[in-house]
Design goal:
The protein is 9% helix and 70% strand. By secondary structure, it is mostly beta strands. It has one domain (32-250): monomeric porin ompg (Porin, Beta Barrel). A twelve-stranded antiparallel barrel has the order 1-2-3-4-5-6-7-8-9-10-11-12. The radius of gyration is 25 Å and the shape is flat. The N and C termini lie far apart (61 Å).
Length: 251
């Protein structure tokens, strides 16, 4: 083999090796995937009193470098001695756009029907800004912790009792989540929505919960939710607290 052929073969080999190395280092990170789960809970008693309570939840979320999505739908229906004592349908959707690693803007919409609290409907539209005060992740240990705050205006359209109301409110929210591993997590959130021209009319929504995997796909979830309405429908209480345990499935 002549010298020039050897040099040509060596150059071609070096080019191939360099191209493969460049491809390996420029490989894009895997795209974020949707995390979806469905939960169902039921409590039935018979004897001195007959009670039935059925709850259902659908949750979905996706977190990327720049975009974060979260969706949820939950429902509950209950009876005591054939008398309805629970009738709730609630859904939400939120989109976060991260401008930096921690600072983001968001848009959120909530819808609620609560037959027992005499809330025919309540729709809340909320744009705003948020910030991650804590945002850590350890891929080796599969742990993650986040603490964020959100603030912005809200527009609320509702029918409570026989009255229809449309008003602007301020939304202040705080959210915390800690993942112990891929199989266990705890979370907590609180949001306050005072009417901007009537501070006596305000809503407070809160939730705290824990979730653990029983198998790769089956989950156990326990959550406590609290809804406080400072100006409820006539004849209704201001505070509603629910403790719900349910079994879920990842899909």
């Amino acid at each position: 083999m002549k010298l020039n052929q050897i040099l040509l073969l060596t150059s071609a080999t070096s080019f191939v090796i360099a191209a493969q190395a460049q491809d390996a280092t420029s490989t894009e990170p895997p795209k974020p995937k949707w995390e979806r789960s469905a939960f169902l809970g039921a409590t039935i008693t018979q004897g001195n009193s007959d009670t039935e309570l059925i709850t259902a939840n659908l949750l979905a979320s996706k977190k990327g470098i720049k975009n974060e999505y979260s969706l949820g739908l939950d429902a509950a229906y209950g009876e005591v001695d054939s008398k309805k004592n629970e009738e709730i349908l609630h859904g939400f959707a939120q989109y976060n756009r991260l401008f930096t690693e921690r600072f983001f803007g968001y848009a959120r919409v909530d819808g609620l029907h609560d037959g027992i609290a005499d809330v025919e409907y309540r729709f809340t539209f909320s744009p705003g800004a948020g910030y991650y005060f804590i945002k850590t992740k350890d891929d080796a240990k599969k742990t993650a912790t986040s603490l964020s705050g959100e603030v912005g205006p809200s527009f609320i359209a509702e029918k409570v009792g026989t009255e229809r109301n449309n008003y602007f409110a301020l939304r202040l929210a705080e959210k915390f989540e800690h993942k112990f591993s891929d199989t266990a997590r705890v979370w907590e959130m609180v949001e306050i929505l005072p009417q901007v021209d009537d501070w006596n009319n305000y809503l407070i929504n809160g939730e705290i919960g824990a979730e653990a995997s029983l198998t790769e796909k089956v989950l156990l979830r326990v959550a406590v939710t609290d809804t406080y309405d400072n100006e409820p429908a006539p004849g209704r209480k201001k505070n509603d607290v629910k403790v719900v345990s349910s079994v879920g499935y990842k899909f």
